[in-house]
Amino acid sequence: MTESNSSVQETVMDVNEIRKFLAHRYPFLLVDKVVQLEPGQSITAIKNVTINEPFFNGHFPEKPIMPGVLIVEAMAQATGLLGFKTMGDDPQPDLLYVLAGIDKVKFKHQVVPGDQLELYAEIIRHKGPMWIYKTEARVNGVVVTSAEIKCVATKTEK
């Protein structure tokens, strides 16, 4: 995986475009913008972590720490954007991108309010509706979480 660039990065997709591709909404949309995207290859997205996140009220009130499962969910949402953009430039409202598995997950550092999560994903394999990604979440260029994430694109029922 490539090293993080700590300088300000140009926005490739803003939250309004992200909402066209992902079904997630507040409080569960965990990607604020995309700063790098190579369809068929990789993506780098950003999640700004603020004290206003609803989970900090209970995790933990005196020492707020972002739950690891939500860091993994943020990485999975980034993979969804990469998968959809690899399939084409137009949103596909009849497809839902769902988590199918998580392997090799490692939590290395805590994420706290004020951190900016850099979500990186690269495609390992894609066969039919199954996608497998190598992912990392970084803060200030330091890996805080890594995982191999499997997702499936499924048709939605109307």
What can you see in these coordinates?
The chain is α+β, with helices and mostly antiparallel strands. It has a single domain (about 15-155), classed as Hotdog Thioesterase (Thiol Ester Dehydrase, Chain A, Roll), CATH 3.10.129.10. Helix content is about 15%, strand content about 40%. The protein is built from 2 helices and 6 strands; from the N terminus they run H-E-E-H-E-E-E-E. The protein has helices at about 15-20, 70-85, and strands spanning about 35-40, 40-50, 95-105, 115-125, 130-140, 140-155. The chain has a 6-stranded antiparallel β-sheet, covered by helices on one side. The longest helix is centred in the middle third of the chain and has 20 residues, at about 70-85. The termini are far apart. The mean pLDDT is about 95.
User: How much helix, percentage-wise, in residues?
Assistant: 10-25%
**Elements, N to C (H/E):** HEEHEEEE
Major β-sheet profile = 6 strands, antiparallel
CATH class wording:
Alpha Beta
- Helix and strand composition category: alpha+beta
Q: Please tally the β strands and state the result.
A: 6
Q: Compute the CA-based radius of gyration.
A: 15 Å
Strand content: 35-45%
Shape: globular
CATH architecture call: Roll
Question: Ranges with pLDDT <50 over ≥5 residues?
Answer: none
Tell me the distance between the termini: 39 Å
What attributes does this structure have?
alpha+beta, 6-stranded antiparallel sheet, 6 strands, 17% helix, globular
